[in-house]
Amino acid sequence: MITVIREPEGQTLTFAKAGSVRRLLNLLGERCTSVLVIRGRELLTEDRMLRPGETVIVRSVRSRG
Amino acid sequence: MKCRRCKAPAQVKLPSHNTGFCPDCFFRFFSGQVARAIKDHAMIAPGERVLVALSGGKDSLALAHELKEQGCDVTGLHVYLGIPGSSDASLAHIRAFCEPRGIPLLVHSTPDDGLAIPEVKEALKGRPICSACGKIKRHAFNRAAREGGFDVLATGHNLDDETARLFANTLRWDASYLSDQGPCLPAEDGFARKIKPLYRLSEFETACYSFLKGIDNVVAPCPYSSGASFTGHKVLLEDLEHTRPGAKIMFYENFLKNGREAFRSVAGSSPALTPCARCGSPTVRETCGVCGLRRMVAARRAGLFVEDGAAGLEDEAC
Ligand code: SF4
Ligand SMILES: [Zn+2]
Ligand SMILES: [Zn+2]
Asked: What is the pTM of this model?
């Protein structure tokens, strides 16, 4: 299972299967240039694999007022 | 994916440049884009003093950070709006950003100037607050630049902001706005030169830069925000970019090269500006729009009615 925190919404989602970042973005309906996928201090490109038990932040890049 | 330059693992994939970079090589790319914008448009001459408008958002902070790293003489300006639940957090955030970087910070408080945004909102009775707020902020930036003797006023607008605005102006074929849009507007009529050194970088690229440089995200967005400006246009352009990588920068650069000049000849000259009788800011009327708003707020406090203070407010977001 992997845990995803959406920002700025602050919502937490879980997914049963790990897999690639590309797969995660598809599930979330996001483009690779519309969000940052953050693991710790690192940004993950689409081809990276997520490991079971991991938590990533998916942060929208759009600025808000 | 490997970094194109050094073959370390890439952290940033850039489809529009058909490449990917590790953090250090991405910083080089980012700095290169800013340096190119500054050089191509003669934005900052050596020794000039730059005032950077700091809203607290990632773009303006990334801009101040990068200009400072490039050796520019940078001062930050924050316009404190007096909005409960948002303005204090923004100011604290900006202070915490500027201090360790040695960036001097000027703060203009609109409540001290009779223009607390919640009061302006009340006085406007349902008319768009963001348009008035934008006007008040621009007025404060121009005034601070003029009074502080700054040569240049820099804002953190990025490629997505600029192309979305260009697209909106094009949909209306607004000759006056189209003749006047660009990343560097020369100083004139008592206004400092206005520059947008991030105009070649997308929202995604500035977000990556801010994250990798450890620039924190703003915590408390404005409660009056109805979302970012031109969101619909940005989504359309993002769809276009997805199928034609590089389309946004081409749309904008080709406009600057081939389009803008054509609109200059049809737009006609703008009306002459004279100093506002109350505050001295350049205006086409006897007193400027912001002095009109201040009068409305004061009248509302005193229980009086004033008409035209809100003239010329359009829909606009932060
Ligand atoms: S969303 Fe932005 S422009 Fe609108 S009131 Fe808030 S700070 Fe001002
Ligand atoms: Zn590299
Ligand atoms: Zn005035």
From this structure: 0.92
